[in-house]
Amino acid sequence: MRTPDRRVVLGLHRSRHERRQLISALDLGITTIDTAFNYLGFASHTTLADVGRGLLHHFKLSTKVGFFPGLGAVEHSLDPVRLRRALEQTNRELGRPPDLVFLHNPERSLSKAAPENAVDALAKACSAMDAAEADGLCGAWGVSTWDPSGLINAVHDTVPKPAVLMIRCGLLVGVHTLDAAESLAERWDDGSTAMWGMSPFGGNASDPVWSKFDARVFLSEPSARLSQVQAAFRAAYHLPQVSAVAVGTDDPLHLRELVDATPYEVDDQAVLHYRSLLLDRPHPQHA
């Protein structure tokens, strides 16, 4: 995998999509935005193009396809035709090809497929992404997965390799998800696949859990200058190893706080010890 470089990506999940958010990101040196076809009620791309007029050329844009409007609900599909149409619509709405497009949570559809059909379904979906890149509908493509364990058995030599794999990261990610993410990366890795992280706070940086322990123990040189949240964010780049982390916030001060944490070094031995403790924890018994 590529060497981590600690980039911060501005994620737009649950974001208000405000212009000040983009300006703040640029002021902090953040030059990548991550969104999705289905964000903001399927209006993220058009809204972003509107509020970001005159600014978007400063950013690299990543988005995702896989969720679609259904009858009364959002539905997931790996149908190559639907994926292609979503990518074409994405280009029209943004007014440019996105730099990166993720196949969005493919495990949602694969979980409903028979095991013998899952490999073929994933291969066809990834081939559609490959073709879209070749046709100029995106600069590159990747896979974003919330549950990597649902993909491992579907990845074979027939499945094209993504340029980027996006997975959950951080101290709230369970050891089995961490192991599954690394196993999936090993199956797909050809030496050029990058790893991105998402949801480093489990969706809530204000959760009381972040004040119940001192995450600064993961730093090589623990510093009182960093808050618990900053230390937890910095550690997220190592759980598992990722080169970029997508964070969603409408608060410019919180975004600055996270960016300010990236120069600090993490103690690899502390991370290894933490993972060994996770392995030693007893698993709950189910009836």
Task: Please outline the helices and strands.
Elements: E1 7-11, H1 19-27, E2 32-34, H2 39-42, H3 44-51, E3 60-65, E4 67-69, E5 74-76, H4 80-94, E6 100-104, H5 107-110, H6 115-134, E7 141-144, E8 164-168, H7 175-188, E9 194-198, H8 228-236, E10 244-247, H9 252-261, H10 268-280
Parallel strand pairs: 1-2, 1-10, 2-3, 3-6, 6-7, 7-8, 8-9, 9-10
Antiparallel strand pairs: 4-5
Helix pairs in contact: 4-6, 8-9
Distance separating the two termini? 40 Å
Mean pLDDT: 91
Assembly status: single chain
Class by SSE composition: alpha/beta
DSSP strand count: 10
Give the topology string: H per helix, E per strand. EHEHHEEEHEHHEEHEHEHH
Q: What percentage of amino acids are in beta strands?
A: 5-15%
Question: What general outline do the C-alpha atoms trace?
Answer: globular
The main pleated sheet reads as:
8 strands, parallel, barrel
User: Measured on Cα atoms, how large is the radius of gyration?
Assistant: 19 Å
What is the spatial order of strands in the main beta sheet?
1-2-3-6-7-8-9-10
- Share in helix: 25-40%
